[in-house]
Amino acid sequence: MIRMKRGGRLEGQTIMLAAGVPDDKFGSEQKAPIDTWDIDQAVTALARAVFAEGGKLVVEGDPSLTLLLAMVAGEYQAQRFAEGSGPDEGDFAPSVRIYRNGSRSEREGENEDLLERFHLVDFASNTGGDIVGGFGPIEREGPVALICIGGGRDVMNQARRFADTAFRRPIFALKTTGGAAAQLASDPSIAAEAIDADIAEQVWTRARTRLESTEAAFDRRRHELEQKVVPYPVIMQLIIAKIALGGAGMLEM
Q: In the prediction, which pLDDT does 132 show?
C-alpha cells in the first residue's frame, strides 16, 4: 500500500466543515453546476487538502458525509492501520470527528462502530446546537476556520454560530456548490469569503475563448463540459494555503 505524503502546515489545527445537499428553499438559481456531484467533489478535495497538511476535520450533523470522509481518511492512514493492526507510535491517523445531532438508527450505529474500530472517524454527541449555554464542536474543538459547501438551513445556522462564537476566524463559502453556501457568499452579516467563484469563472472564460477559435464538434462537446466543471482541488489548496498563512500570501491561479 502506498502511504499518502503529507506536510505539516495544519499540524495541531482543526478545520470545521459545514456541508450538505441544498434544499428547495434556495431555488434553482442556487444550485451547483453538476448538482450533488459538485458537493461530493468539493468535500473530497477539502478533506484531502486538510489531511495532506496534518490537519483535522470536524463536522456537525449530516450523516451522509460520514462514509465519504471515512473513505478519504483511509487514503492517509499508515500501513498498520490499513492492515487492521491498529495505531503504532508515530503513526498518523487523520482525525475526523462527527458531532451527532439527534438520535441514530440501529444501522447507523453499526456503521459508526465499524468506522471507529478501524480508526477512520471519531463520533461525539452534540450538547450545543441551538441550546443556549451548550457546548458543540465550535466550543470543544476550537476550529481555526469554517468551510461551507452547499447545504440548507443547518449550514446557515452553523455559519451564524461560528461567526458569533469564533469571532474573527475566517469563513469560506463555496458559492459554486449552491444552497446555503451560495447565499452565505453574499451575506454581509457573515462576511464569508468566496474565492471559488473567481477561479471557476477563469476556467469558464478560457473555455469560451477556446470555443471561439474553432467550430470543431469535439471542442464544442468539451466546452459544454468545461462550462460546468469547477477545479475544487485547486480551490481547496488555495483556501488551506490562506488558512496556514493567516490570510496572507494568497495565490492566483
A: 44
Is the confidence at residue 84, as pLDDT, over 60? no
Please, is 104 exposed, middle or buried when counting C-beta atoms within 10 Å of its C-beta (0-12, 13-18, 19+)?
Answer: middle
How is residue 176 annotated by DSSP?
G
Number of C-beta neighbours around residue 7 at 10 A = 12
On the question of pLDDT at 83 being above 70, the answer is no
**CA neighbours within 13 Å on the CB side: how many for 165?**
25
Contact present, 178 and 22 (Cβ < 8 Å): yes
Q: Which residues contact 179 (CB under 8 A, 6 or more apart)?
A: 20, 21, 22, 23, 26, 30, 31, 32, 150, 151, 152, 155
Residue 146 neighbours by CB under 8 Å, 6+ apart: 15, 16, 17, 18, 158, 159, 162, 166, 169, 170, 171, 172
Tell me, yes or no, if the pTM score tops 0.90.
no
